[in-house]
## 1
Amino acid sequence: QVQLVESGGGLVQPGGSLRLSCALSGSIFSIYAMGWYRQAPGKQRELVAAITGGSPDYADSVKGRFTISRDYAKNTVYLQMSSLKPEDTAVYYCNARRSTYYGGGDFWGQGTQVTVSS
């Protein structure tokens, strides 16, 4: 099993910045990909950014504004968000995808609220 704990959400004005953190624990060796998803009220959960061993991927709506990174020494994944817009308001979830070699599957954090408003 893998446990994920997010932090760093909050209220920020349009144009501001926030950094989300996701601390991993448990069978971290089994994880091959990490990502951040978000879900706004009345909408489906969507992928925001993902990182494996190669280049990160981003949703078109956040390219150039958000950066995902992974600190292997601290077992933590970050999402640096800049130039925030009201439409970025959502609950943000950290995701860890386990290798099929270890049985596959997804693990999720509890979510952290990000509100962009003046």
## 2
Amino acid sequence: EVQLVESGGGLVQPGGSLRLSCGASGFTFGMFHMSWVRQAPGKGPERVSSIDRGGGSIYYADSVKGRFTISRDNAKATMYLQMNSLKPEDTGVYYCAAGLASSWPDNNYRGQGTQVTVSS
């Protein structure tokens, strides 16, 4: 059974940090491109960051550049998102997506998401 399970979300004050994890199972993680996508209340999904199979090619949305860092550990079948200097506009459900050809906007697999709330 294919699974992508996100963890690490929560409530944090503006300026704080969180580290999200996405654990994969049921498929060959190292063969898949990966993305973090978020969806704020009342808005459509937004790609936050992507990383290719080997970690050599990385994308960040302009809104998170300099604050978020994506990484992956293929040996552990896990992807991470270190989020620093969080802002209220970073609030949303964050989920990870995996794709053989691309992980955004189409993907082969997607997790259920973890809630991130940035509020004082």
## 3
Amino acid sequence: QVQLVESGGGLAQAGDSLTLSCATSSEIFSKTVMGWFRQAPGKEREFVAARSWTGASFGYPDAVKGRFTISRDSARNAVDLQMNNLKVEDTAVYYCAAGRGGRRWRDYGYWGQGTQVTVSS
């Protein structure tokens, strides 16, 4: 059973930084694209960032570009999402995903349980 274990969510104030981490098995880490999506209440799940096992990035949407950075740590079989200068509109449940890659949630077959990020003004 594929497991994606997320950590690092929580409460933050606007302007703060948070880092989300997602750990998985070495097999999944070395053979899939791993990324992050987020879903705010009443909104569709949206792409945040992804990076393949080769290191190639799928870019960032304008809403997070310049503030969020995804990285892979092969020593931990984990992918991290560094979130800087957080905004209230970043409030959402953040999901780790693994799959063939892309910016559509349908491109990913494995999902974490989600971690809440709440940003207050």
## 4
Amino acid sequence: QVQLVESGGGLVQAGGSLRLACVISGNTNVISAMAWYRQAPGNQRELVAAFTRTGNTNYADSVKGRFTISRNSAQNTVYLQMNSLQPEDTAVYYCNADRQSWSPGPAYWGQGTQVTVSP
């Protein structure tokens, strides 16, 4: 079993920054890739940033140049640095862990952390 716990959300003014953290615990050997998603009210959950299975990074077009995904493997933590935040970035942000192909089952999700950006 794998547990993901996010932190770092909050209220910030437009143009400000936040850094989200996702601490991973449990059987981390089953994890193949990590990502951050977000879901705003009335919208579907969308991919924000991700490490691919090969270690590369992907970003949603809306956050390129403003958000950075990083990780500290020694501390089993994945970060999302968010700069130049805008009101449209307001959402609940979720940490996601995809499974290795040899470990069937659903992906793992954290409980989410609220990010609110005021104009």
